[in-house]
Amino acid sequence: MEKVLVSSCLLGQPVRYDGQAQRLNDPFISQLCEQQRVVSFCPEVAGGLPTPRDAAEILMSQIITVTGVDVSDEFARGAKLALAHCLASNIRFALLKESSPSCGRNTIYDGSFTGNKVAGMGWTAKLLEQNGIRVFSEEQIPALSKALRSL
Fold first, then answer.
1. E-strand spans in the chain?
2. pLDDT tens for residues 82-104?
3. Under a CB-based contact definition with an 8 Å cutoff, are residues 104 and 139 in contact?
4. CA 97 to CA 139: how far, in whole Å?
5. InterPro entries per the record (predicted)?
6. Would the pLDDT of 1 be above 90?
């Protein structure tokens, strides 16, 4: 059975930058959990960042916190660890948190820390996609379900 890498915050783990979770209450995700097909992962924590931590956004080719600290190395490390985990476990699908500088699938914040979103991908989502792992956001659960059923 196919396993799915899922952002830890979407599973209720308080790992977001603000120390909160963003638990999904979705029957399909609950079913995957019951079937032990979910692999929880937070690239930001895996990359060495604490919880809570300053908000960060992608600004050109770096990831900068609201206080001006460059956390690109930690984000890059987390993305590489997510990819390594997927490759080692033969995971071909990921469900990641939309708009995150790590996990955003379709949108990210624009780097101005004003709440504006733009089309784009977080670093982990982009690296996974570049390596053949299909990435979905929590806004695309029906598409993930369909992709898994089509196997």
1. 4-7, 38-41, 56-59, 62-65, 93-96, 107-109, 117-119, 134-137
2. 999 999 999 999 999 999 999 99
3. no
4. 9
5. 2-thiour_desulf
6. no
